[in-house]
Amino acid sequence: MFTGLIEEIGYIQKINKTTKSAKLTIRASKVIEGSKVGDSICTNGVCLTVVHMDAISFTVDVMPETMRSSNLGELTTNSPVNLERALQLKDRLGGHMVSGHIDGVGKIHEMIKEANATWVSIKASPKLLKYIIHKGSIAIDGISLTVAYVDQEMFKVSLIPLTKEETTLLGKKIGDSVNLECDMVGKYIEKLMLYSDVTETKKPMDMNFLRENGFM
Questions:
Q1: Looking at residue 19, what DSSP letter applies?
Q2: pTM of the complete model beyond 0.90
Q3: Lumazine-binding repeats: which residues (predicted)?
Q4: CB of 4 closer than 8 Å to CB of 142
Q5: Dist CA 87 CA 81 (whole Å)
């Protein structure tokens, strides 16, 4: 698990791609401290396992499913990436609970400056937007942000100057893709609303469902 609070910006040092997968070597410093082979490092919002590391870089494998559902396949040598080590139980939860499992990709639609903030509009598919709520949490390329606006085509977030300095988001251009992870609570609720098990067909969570399961 992660918090969506980016620890540093790393840079792609080397990419080995096959037709469906990739191996990335990422130059970094802070996230290497205390990390070892087998640990997870959130890279642009994607939970990846360290398979090799040295004093200035770490290497991860990217499997086909991750390549299909994220923007990691678009990275090139020297591309910047947001990095965060896994959450420790003693840490403060300053962002929100982020799994590092990407729900899909959105596209930067607009960036507008307002005083010390910057509004970023992101277009996304209906299957993602249904989980995005006003004032809810969203992870964009691994960055924990609050949704300030949402409609049927896009959502908006507002960034403070610190987010610009410590993440890659405002270095993006219109049309660039971003990895999106919606708040997992909504997905769990949807699953419960369509409850099913190996012996039963899907049932709506209504008064009968609650009564049958001892809640009334």
A1: S
A2: no
A3: 1-96, 97-193
A4: yes
A5: 18
Return d(Cα 144, Cα 1) in angstroms, integer.
13
Whether residues 64 and 40 fall in one domain: yes
Residue 39's CATH number: 2.40.30.20
Tally of domains within the chain: 3
* Per-residue model confidence (pLDDT) at position 200: 55
Other beta carbons within 10 Å of 61: 15
Pinpoint the alpha helices (H) of the chain.
64-69, 126-129, 161-166, 184-193, 207-212
10-residue mean pLDDT series, the chain (216 residues): 95 95 97 96 98 97 96 96 91 85 97 96 97 95 97 96 93 97 86 63 65 67
Nearest to 25 by CA among 73, 48, 59, 55: 59
Please give the DSSP secondary-structure letter assigned to residue 74.
G
Instruction: Give all strands (DSSP E) within 88-128, no chain letters.
Output: 104-114, 117-123
Three-class secondary structure of residue 64 per DSSP? helix
